[in-house]
Amino acid sequence: MRFRKKVEKDEVYIQAIQQLGSVMEHTIKQNNAVDIYEEYFDDMAEDGSVEPPSAKTINVFRDPNDHKRSAANISWYPDNAQKLAVAYSILEFQRSPPGMCMDSYIWDVESPNKPDMTLKPISPLVCIEYNPKDPHCLVGGQYNGQLAFWDTRKGSQPIEVSAISNSHSDPLYKCIFLTSKTGTECFTTSTDGQVLWWDIRKMAEPTETLILDLAKGDKPTLGGISLEYEPTMPTKFMVGTEQGVVISCNRKAKTPADRIVANFSGHYGPVYALQRNPFFPKNFLTVGDWTARIWSEDLRESSIMWTKFHRSYLTDGCWSPARPAVFFTTRMDGCLDVWDYMFKQNDPTLSLQVCDEALNCLRIQDSGSLLACGSHSGNVTLLELSQSLSQQQRNEKASVTQIFERETKREKILESRYREMKLKERAKSQQEERSPEEDGENPEELVAEADKNFWFTVEQEKIGIEKKEKAAEQ
How far apart, in whole angstroms, are the C-alpha atoms of residue 395 and residue 135? Predict the structure, then answer.
């Protein structure tokens, strides 16, 4: 206090205060005129298109067993990107060595050296799926066709397994949870030609059954490989078959025959991946043989867009949950292709050589920034995508809408033109095949009449010549 009074009496202090007062007054007036903390562009979304598309490897999770098995399927932990479950099996017929390990694992994404948990099925797992409503529960489809249910809080052994007499007779290739009040319903498919609905609280027998028979015969003709279910359309589902046909079904149809609504044919081999666009459910992606195709439910004859034919077989694919124009495909040569239709449509925007062996499966996390790929030897590679691939661009949704509508319209015009040409060809061929008898004329009468006309013409020519000769003599 004494020191402050002493300083205040100092002449230098008084002069300094007078000088600073004018500066402070000027600054205060400036602050009143202009808000230096104002955000001018806070309402504008970040545009990641400036950044080139890229992806970097975060971790690699390797099958800890001596005899390596394929990573057949991957499922992300529902609540966050903390864990992922991987199903391991050897799908080649009779290639499994005696005493092969049948375990599958749940991995912590930050701990690639040791699995977070081991799942012990009675037969190798071909597919695995977390329950979106309960992150502790997951189901797995086994090689012997049975469906197993785990609660991770109760250990590595399955809580319940479906009765083998009421299960699939072929490997269970796909399982998806349904939107229901209980959150315990799911449905499965297999190459035995069946789609089965289950309640995991009581797995003694399926609640419903559908036979994939387009011919409406007694014997199933199509084997299921992939499934698609959109929660916003709870009664509809789709099945991709090993014959290359996609079947659209309605679960609530009155009769079993009416459940199969439509089918889409376009692939030369099994449809390994089938998924609706998260932003445009009417359009769906299929992956099979050497191409990926985008379809519209309004067109059944052909797809509206497709990729070029690759040199190696495609094994899996999925849409980006963050960007409507982006999808991913994996190939037998170990490449991951990223397609961005906002950037270019004829070639992948980004191709990554993930490994030197076949990539069997991929699964993208719900945020759209993390992607996991499983290889033939059981290595699961975790990739982080750049912002340009995981954040929606400005007006992207409207642009993709225009692209899909334009291509659908183009295919409809081509389809109608093709039908018109086919009708013309059919009418022309029918006209050419009609025999003279159908026109009401006898061929013998036609020959006789032609002969008569010929000789009549000859006689007329002879008479004309004779008249000319007589006239010349006179």
Answer: 35
Confidence of residue 216 (pLDDT cuts 50, 70, 90): low
Compute, in degrees rounded to 10, the torsion defined by CA atoms 251, 123, 242, 264.
Answer: 20
Summarize the confidence of residues 77-98 as an average pLDDT.
Answer: 85
Provide the whole-model pTM: 0.76
Dihedral sign for Cα atoms in the order 441, 445, 448, 454: negative
Beta bridge partners of 339: 327
Distance CA 124, CA 231 (A): 29
The full DSSP string for 71-107 is EEEEEE-SSSTTEEEEEEE--STT-PPTT----EEEE
Instruction: Find out whether 172 and 190 touch, Cβ atoms under 8 Å.
Output: yes
Pair 314, 290: CB distance under 8 Å:
yes
Sheet containing 147-151: give its strands across.
Answer: 125-131, 134-142, 147-151, 160-161
- Other C-beta atoms within 10 Å of 474: how many? 4
As a whole number, mean pLDDT of residues 23-30 equals 85
Tokens standing for 295? 């379809």
pLDDT in tens, 370-389: 999 999 999 999 999 999 89
Please say whether the beta carbons of 380 and 86 come within 8 A: yes
Dig out the tokens for 300 from the structure. Answer: 């059944």
Task: Read off the DSSP letter of residue 115.
Answer: -
First to last CA, the chain: 164
Cα Rg of the chain, angstroms: 36
- DSSP state letter for 434: -
- Separation CA 177–CA 365 (nearest Å): 17
DSSP string across 150-171: EEGGG-SS-SEE--GGGS-SS-
Across 180-235, the runs of DSSP E, i.e. the strands, are 185-190, 194-199, 208-211, 224-228
Q: How far apart are CA 395 and CA 11, in angstroms?
A: 66
Residue 447 pLDDT? 79
Task: Give me the pLDDT at residue 439, please.
Answer: 52
Pull the structure tokens for residue 102: 């049948």
Q: What is the rounded CA–CA span in Å between residue 212 and residue 79? A: 34
Q: What is the DSSP letter of 1?
A: -
% of the chain with per-residue pLDDT over 90: 52
Task: For residue 47, name the pLDDT band (cuts at 50, 70, 90).
Answer: low
